Task: inverse folding
């Protein structure tokens, strides 16, 4: 038959979005990293990457190669029970809207909480690492400035306020301004 | 300048509003004591909501400056201390030091819900609310943040207390 | 011939200083009048919010998060709600998104006018402080008419907004736009065209583009140095792409290349005031009708969140000072978040300005810090002093008192005063 009667099947060729390109590049270069793209209800997609300790610094250098104007937003320290984690949010490719939102996580076991330091790649990261070191007890090897950031200097050593286990703040140290439900002795639960 | 004072321009009834009564009372107390109070503001770790309402009380809309109330730069010149914020651990020493540096007779006003009872930070290892654990307090102005008129009302109560300290009696309100 | 002995002096500025609103300590190393190094010491505002957040459920966290900062309290509320909505997969109705954009722009207006006044005060022009704060009162009135309070207007809830904007609110906002358009020429004349102020603010505390990029500066501090970064634009947030938002750079306002000094940052703020007025007009035109909450009944919110939140969520928004980031992680079956962290925009800006102050004079320190707009910082409980004794009123007493007052004012009120929702969950 002639070509006019043949109905072409519409194959949707989706252009790879910026997030897909970035995820592909990271997966190809670091096969040991787990990369996932999650999309939320209003259509914004974020790239979540989990990488082991050994490749962490190389991944950060690779991200700066992908976009020299990469913007480091926040460094979040977490307590997962058996492990401690450190998650960073980085914004890249934002010359045109919208930019790519990238979250990189690295974990370390609690009896060996050492994570490589990335302040030569992102100079502002040293302040977030100082906070993670004093609040959660993570040790960053190679950090240039290891003073306390927020806690007063006479806060006792070895107590990490954000840990959920025995090294956290004990119930007696909590000062209660006298909430009427808790007038007797400290805070409950 | 064509910047007009908003609202407050439709005075519908002839009765004096609450604010006018407050203003007359402040003027009367200042005349009675013989001086206007100078104010020093101490921020002991607050979120700044109360601080901007304090400064808004001195700007031309609420205008406490026409009674001579002004913010001074050193506690040694001040009569009244305005303290905001739940007293954090690191500000504890400084608040006490500022209190000792202010000359007598002095009045301490705790502005906001934070120094009164801790507000949402009542249960924390780093705050020391209420303020009366740290320095003796004369007037509490609760609110989160309190309106500038409420802060002026607190200043009226402070002036009455000052009148009692200095002259031994408080004048009756003029009506 | 005597030899000249040079030595460096360390001078602390702060924490309680008449030029700064908040306690923070800057230790300057000086050589004569010139600054060699600035060291920032923080921690005076440490209230332990992340620690407190381990013990609050999702709805109580909203009220805790609002009080992190008093000037940008709506931004924190909004960003936290977005992070929880992303973790739970809740969809927000469109009218609620428009109302969030409107209140966000009103907040930006009041914050920028506040900062212009503070910069004026710090260089010695007290009159400018009084006049801009007087002009700001119009926005505070409109916010009070819409939301009920001048500061800490908790308009946003998880899944929508709590109050609607009716016809009277719309008329007030249109009045406000007309009023501000008529006084902006006077503000521009003071800050942009006055030769004395230009001589004072030009080339003071220069933050170069390289330092702004390396130290992750955000907000007007970064845009004043030429970086094109704005979280509403780079995130594609809500309805902002429909309203047409773009980052405002100094060359749009002054017409010259950005130097990265205090003058440029002030110019960016003035440009943003104009942009906010336009965005308000567009939003009021395009706002559709519809419902404003995803869950119409408030007391089902905690129960639903217990089932729906399973995973992590990140919220990003552009507060008046810069990009604000919140992170929430939750697990199914618990009504408390497992981990919450926020990063306020002043944190990287402080370190960027500390580098930018090197080489300047001591007199510029206060105006430099004011130019980045630093904002470092259970109404269930009221303490009443009656007759010299302190009484504590709890929520039940306040509710009873407010019911009595309503009955006094209007004996035929038809509302039902039994509380919906929960009281203190403990």
Result:
């Amino acid at each position: 038959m002639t070509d006019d009667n043949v109905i072409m099947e519409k194959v949707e060729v989706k252009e790879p979005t910026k997030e897909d390109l970035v995820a592909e590049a990271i997966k190809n270069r670091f096969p040991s990293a787990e990369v996932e793209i999650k999309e939320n209800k209003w259509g914004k997609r974020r790239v979540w990457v989990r990488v082991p300790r050994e490749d962490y610094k190389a991944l950060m250098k690779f991200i700066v190669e992908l976009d020299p104007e990469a913007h480091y937003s926040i460094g979040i320290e977490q307590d997962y029970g058996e492990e401690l984690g450190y998650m960073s949010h980085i914004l890249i490719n934002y010359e045109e809207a919208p930019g790519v939102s990238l979250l990189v996580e690295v974990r370390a076991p609690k009896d060996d909480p050492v994570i490589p330091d990335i302040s030569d790649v992102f100079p502002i990261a040293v302040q977030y690492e100082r906070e993670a070191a004093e609040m959660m007890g993570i040790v960053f090897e190679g950090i240039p400035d290891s003073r306390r950031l927020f806690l007063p200097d006479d806060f006792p050593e070895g107590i990490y306020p954000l840990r959920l286990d025995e090294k956290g703040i004990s119930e007696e140290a909590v000062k209660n301004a006298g909430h009427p439900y808790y007038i007797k002795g400290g805070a409950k639960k | 300048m064509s910047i007009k004072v908003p609202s407050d321009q439709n005075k519908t009834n002839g009765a004096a509003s609450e604010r006018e009564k407050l203003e007359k009372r402040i003027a009367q107390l200042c005349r009675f004591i013989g001086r206007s109070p100078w104010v020093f503001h101490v921020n002991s770790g607050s979120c700044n909501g109360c601080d901007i309402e304090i400064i808004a009380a001195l700007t031309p809309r609420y205008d406490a400056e026409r009674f001579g109330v002004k913010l001074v730069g050193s506690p040694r010149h001040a009569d009244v201390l305005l303290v905001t914020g739940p007293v954090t651990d690191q500000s504890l020493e400084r608040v006490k030091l500022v209190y000792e540096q202010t000359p007598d007779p002095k009045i301490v006003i705790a502005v906001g819900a934070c120094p009164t009872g801790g507000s949402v930070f009542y249960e924390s290892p780093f705050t020391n609310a209420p303020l009366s654990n740290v320095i003796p307090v004369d007037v509490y102005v609760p609110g989160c943040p309190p309106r500038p008129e409420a802060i002026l009302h607190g200043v009226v109560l402070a002036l009455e207390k000052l009148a009692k300290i200095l002259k031994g009696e408080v004048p009756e309100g003029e009506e | 011939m005597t030899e000249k002995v040079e030595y460096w002096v360390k001078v602390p500025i702060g924490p309680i200083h008449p030029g700064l609103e908040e306690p923070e300590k800057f230790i300057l190393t000086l050589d004569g009048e010139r600054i060699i190094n600035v060291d920032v010491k923080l921690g005076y505002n440490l209230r332990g919010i992340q620690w407190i957040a381990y013990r609050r459920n999702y709805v109580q966290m909203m009220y805790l998060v609002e009080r992190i900062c008093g000037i940008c309290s709506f931004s924190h509320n909004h960003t936290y709600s977005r992070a929880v909505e992303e973790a739970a997969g809740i969809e927000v109705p469109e009218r609620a998104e428009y109302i969030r954009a409107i209140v966000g722009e009103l907040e930006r207006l009041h914050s920028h006018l506040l900062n212009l006044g503070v910069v004026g005060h710090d260089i010695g022009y007290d009159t400018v402080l009084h006049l801009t704060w007087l002009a700001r009162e119009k926005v505070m009135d409109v916010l009070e008419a819409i939301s009920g309070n001048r500061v800490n207007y908790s308009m946003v809830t998880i899944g929508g907004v709590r109050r609607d904007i009716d016809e009277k609110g719309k008329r007030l906002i249109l009045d406000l736009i007309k009023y501000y358009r008529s006084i902006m020429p006077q503000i521009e004349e003071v800050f942009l065209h006055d030769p004395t102020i230009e001589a004072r603010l030009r080339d003071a505390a220069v933050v170069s583009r390289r330092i702004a990029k390396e130290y992750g500066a955000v907000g007007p501090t970064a845009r004043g140095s030429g970086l094109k970064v704005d979280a509403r634009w780079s995130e594609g947030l809500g309805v902002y792409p429909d309203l047409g938002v773009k980052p405002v750079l100094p060359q749009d306002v002054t017409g010259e290349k950005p130097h990265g000094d205090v003058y440029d940052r002030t110019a960016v703020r003035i440009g943003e005031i104009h942009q906010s007025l336009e965005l308000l007009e567009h939003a009021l035109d395009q706002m559709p009708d519809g419902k404003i909450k995803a869950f119409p009944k408030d007391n089902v919110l905690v129960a639903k969140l217990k089932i729906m939140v399973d995973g992590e969520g990140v919220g990003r928004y552009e507060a008046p000072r810069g990009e604000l980031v919140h992170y929430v992680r939750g697990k199914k079956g618990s009504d408390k978040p497992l981990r919450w962290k926020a990063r306020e925009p002043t944190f990287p800006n402080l370190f960027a300005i500390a580098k930018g102050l090197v080489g300047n004079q001591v007199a510029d320190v206060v105006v430099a810090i004011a130019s980045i707009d630093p904002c470092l910082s259970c109404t269930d409980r009221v303490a009443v002093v009656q007759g010299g004794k302190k009484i504590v009123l709890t929520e039940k007493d306040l509710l009873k008192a407010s019911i009595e007052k309503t009955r006094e004012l209007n004996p035929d009120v038809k509302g039902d005063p039994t509380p919906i929702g929960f009281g203190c969950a403990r």
Chain A has one domain: 16-150. Chain A is about 20% helix and 25% strand.
